[in-house]
């Protein structure tokens, strides 16, 4: 039996625990956040686990857990940081020939003339988003220059705080009436995906005039049979970023498909929403990761 350390205990942990146990992978919770960890008398032995499943979301706590466990990770620190840098992902995919929305990176502080020049590159509305947040936090759609400058003023206030590490944001093309897909790639192969859409009525928890499709903001993820071109697009994305376990967000409108974002810590949905053999492939990736120990 292989022992796998998981640094968080949310949907993914509970869903993967049983299926992986059936494949001789024991899943253990190794909490890294919202607790006190003795560094001289740590709660885990360095030989207790064979691999870790996805580097912790907080880099500082993650560094401690990584040092204490001393295991190879399915998606290590570099993979998580690569995916979290939205602008870096767009730049890498653009260079690899993977279609992406037109995007401008703004590094604060920026002059108003530069901000307006970025806005004028697009037909409004535009999407303004922080470069390294998740779950749709801080993302805004603005339709005119004054509203746009108002949003960037708020970002400027946040970035003025000296302890803020990431002082950048994106101005991005808005893709209207797009269908939003999350494709899952495991070890280079797309193993299925979901369509994310808002509920039909406000009584389901989302207003009909909302446009963000994040599940954590009330959207519903429905398993779909992804067409071959979207599977190939997701696999090209994972290859370009060199990330083994990756959620790939794809927007499709008319005959156009673009990769909008990626997530190197994607939530595992219900097994029925993925291809047959999903957990077999995931278990194989975990075993291959564990085999890297000592290489």
What labels would you give this structure?
RimK family alpha-L-glutamate ligase; 31% helix; 3 domains; 5-stranded antiparallel beta sheet; alpha+beta; 13 strands; globular; 295 residues; Dna Ligase, domain 1; 4-stranded parallel beta sheet
Q: In summary, what is this structure?
A:
The chain has 295 residues and is of the alpha+beta class. It folds into 3 domains: 2-80, 3-Layer(aba) Sandwich (Rossmann fold), CATH 3.40.50; 102-173, Dna Ligase, domain 1 (2-Layer Sandwich); 176-286, D-amino Acid Aminotransferase, Chain A, domain 1, CATH 3.30.470.20.
Q: What is the β-strand count?
A: 13
List the secondary-structure elements in sequence, H or E. EHEEHEHHEHEEHEEEEHEEH
Number of domains: 3
CATH superfamily annotation of the largest domain? ATP-grasp fold, B domain
Biggest sheet, spatial arrangement of strands: 11-10-9-12-13
**What is the highest CATH level, the class of the largest domain?**
Alpha Beta
What is the CATH architecture annotation of the largest domain? 2-Layer Sandwich
Portion of residues in helices? 25-40%
| Rg, Å, rounded | 20 Å
Q: How does the overall form come out from the CA principal axes? A: globular
Describe this structure in words.
The chain has 295 residues and is of the alpha+beta class. The protein contains eight helices and 13 strands. It has helices spanning 11-21, 59-69, 77-84, 86-95, 112-119, 145-160, 228-241, 278-290, and strands spanning 2-6, 25-29, 51-53, 73-74, 103-107, 126-130, 140-142, 168-173, 179-186, 189-197, 220-224, 245-253, 256-263. A five-stranded antiparallel β-sheet has the order 11-10-9-12-13. A four-stranded parallel β-sheet has the order 2-1-3-4. Strands 5-8-6-7 form a four-stranded antiparallel β-sheet, with helices on both faces. The longest helix has 16 residues, at 145-160. One of its GO terms (molecular function) is ATP binding. InterPro entries: ATP-grasp, ATP-grasp_RimK-type, ATP_grasp_subdomain_1. This is RimK family alpha-L-glutamate ligase.
């Amino acid at each position: 039996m292989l022992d796998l350390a998981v640094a968080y205990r949310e949907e993914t942990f509970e869903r993967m625990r049983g299926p992986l146990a059936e494949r001789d992978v024991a899943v253990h919770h190794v909490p890294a956040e919202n607790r006190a960890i003795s560094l001289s008398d740590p709660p885990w032995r360095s030989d207790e686990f064979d691999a870790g499943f996805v580097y912790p979301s907080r880099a500082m706590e993650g560094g401690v857990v990584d040092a204490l466990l001393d295991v190879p990770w399915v998606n290590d620190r570099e993979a998580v940081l690569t995916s979290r840098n939205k602008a870096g992902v767009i730049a890498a995919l653009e260079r690899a020939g993977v279609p992406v929305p037109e995007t401008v990176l703004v590094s604060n502080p920026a002059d108003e003339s530069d901000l307006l020049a970025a806005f004028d590159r697009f037909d409004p509305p535009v999407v303004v988003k922080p470069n390294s947040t998740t779950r749709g936090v801080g993302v805004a759609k603005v339709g005119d220059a004054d509203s746009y400058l108002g949003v960037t003023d708020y970002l400027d206030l946040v970035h003025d705080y000296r302890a803020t590490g990431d002082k950048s944001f994106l101005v991005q093309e808005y893709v209207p009436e797009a269908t939003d897909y999350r494709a899952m790639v495991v070890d280079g192969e797309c193993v299925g995906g979901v369509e994310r859409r808002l509920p039909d009525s406000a009584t389901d928890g989302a207003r009909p005039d909302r446009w963000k499709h994040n599940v954590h903001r009330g959207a519903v993820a429905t398993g779909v049979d992804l067409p071959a071109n979207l599977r190939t697009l997701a696999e090209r994305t994972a290859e370009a970023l060199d990330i083994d376990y990756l959620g790939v967000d794809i927007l499709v409108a008319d005959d156009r498909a673009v990769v909008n974002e990626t997530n190197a810590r994607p939530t595992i949905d219900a097994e029925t929403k993925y291809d047959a053999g999903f957990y077999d492939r995931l278990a194989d990736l975990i075993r291959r990761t564990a085999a890297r120990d000592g290489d």
